[in-house]
Write a structure and sequence with these properties.
This protein is α/β, with parallel strands linked by helices. About 50% of the residues lie in helices and about 10% in strands. The protein is built from 11 helices and 9 strands. It has a 5-stranded parallel sheet. It has a two-stranded antiparallel sheet with strand order 1-2. It is globular. The model has no long low-confidence stretch (mean pLDDT about 95).
Length: about 270
C-alpha cells in the first residue's frame, strides 16, 4: 500500500509492516553503510502504466526516507549514506524523470533498480547505460542485482561504481566456478581425475590447496565442504576482478583491457 509493505516473517510467520521511515531507521540501527530506501520493483515484463505507477510511488517513498535521514544528520554524516533508487521499468523517459527528481532531492548516491528482473540482456544494458548517463558522475552510481563478471566490466565502462549479486555464492553452491577463462562446471566428469587447481592464476585457499578432481568429488558426494570452497573461490574471483578494474581505470587502460577480458571470459572454460 501507499503506507508501506506488509509481509510474513520467515522465522515464525508473524505479520510485519515496514514503512519507508522504518526501513531507514532500522538500517541506521543495524550499522548499514549504504542505506537503501523502500522502493517498488516490478518484475519484467511490465506495461508502461504499471511501471509509471511504481516509479511515482518510489519517488514518494524516497522523499519520506530522505526526510528521516535528514533528521539525524550526525549519524548519516559520520558513516552511512542514503541512496535514492531509480525505477521506471524499461521506459527511458520514466527513468530520466525518476533520476531527475531524485537528483533534485540531493541524495549523496544513486542506485538503479528494477533491472535484471526478467527482461532481455540487451535491454538491461541499454536501460542501464541511459540511466547512468542521467545521473551525476560526481556521485556514486550503484546498479542493483547484477551480475556476471563480463557484465560487471561492461557496466563499469558505463560509469557504475557499485554492484550486488548472489551469483558468487549461489553458483558456488551449484558447482559453477568463475575463472579468467570463463565459467567452469566442476560437476562434469572430465574433472574427475584432473590434478590442476580451478584457476592456476588464483590465489584463493581453494585453488592453493585443492584440485579440480577433489572439488568434483565433493560435488558428486554432496559434501558441504564443496559449496563452501566453491563460494570462497568465487568471492575471491569477484573481489580480484574489482581490484583489477580499479587498477586499469587508474592506469588509463580500462577500455583496451575490458575488450580483451570480456572476450576471454565469454569463451567459457568448459568450451
Amino acid at each position: 500500500s501507499e503506507e508501506g509493505v506488509e509481509f510474513r516473517s520467515h522465522i515464525d510467520g508473524a505479520r510485519l509492516f515496514f514503512r519507508p521511515e522504518d526501513v531507514v531507521t532500522l538500517q541506521v540501527r543495524l550499522g548499514v553503510d549504504v542505506l537503501m530506501p523502500l522502493d517498488e520493483c516490478l518484475p519484467a515484463p511490465v506495461n508502461r502504466a504499471d511501471a509509471e505507477r511504481a516509479m511515482v510511488r518510489t519517488l514518494r517513498w524516497a522523499r519520506r526516507s530522505r526526510a528521516v535521514a535528514l533528521e539525524a544528520p550526525a549519524a548519516i554524516e559520520d558513516g552511512p549514506v542514503l541512496f535514492g533508487i531509480v525505477q521506471g521499468g524499461v521506459f527511458a523517459d520514466l527513468r530520466e524523470q525518476c533520476a531527475a527528481e531524485l537528483v533534485a532531492l540531493g541524495f549523496p548516491g544513486y542506485a538503479v533498480g528494477g533491472l535484471s528482473v526478467g527482461e532481455a540482456v540487451e535491454m538491461t544494458r541499454d536501460v542501464a547505460a541511459a540511466t547512468a548517463a542521467a545521473l551525476p558522475a560526481s556521485a556514486p552510481r550503484y546498479l542493483m542485482g547484477v551480475g556476471r563478471p563480463e557484465d560487471l566490466i561492461r557496466f563499469v565502462g558505463m560509469g557504475y561504481d557499485l554492484f550486488d549479486c548472489v551469483m558468487p555464492t549461489r553458483n558456488g553452491r551449484n558447482g559453477m566456478l568463475f575463472t579468467w577463462d570463463g565459467p567452469m562446471n566442476i560437476r562434469l566428469a572430465r574433472y574427475a581425475r584432473d590434478p590442476e587447481p580451478v584457476d592456476a592464476s588464483c590465489g584463493c585457499y581453494a585453488c592453493r590447496t585443492f584440485s579440480r578432481a577433489y572439488l568434483r568429488h565433493l560435488a558428486a558426494s554432496r559434501e558441504m565442504l564443496g559449496p563452501q570452497l566453491n563460494s570462497l573461490h568465487n568471492l575471491h574471483f569477484y573481489l580480484d576482478l574489482m581490484r583489477q578494474m580499479r587498477a586499469q581505470i587508474a592506469a588509463g587502460s580500462f577500455a583496451e583491457w575490458a575488450t580483451a577480458r570480456i572476450a576471454r571470459l565469454e569463451q567459457g572454460a568448459d568450451a
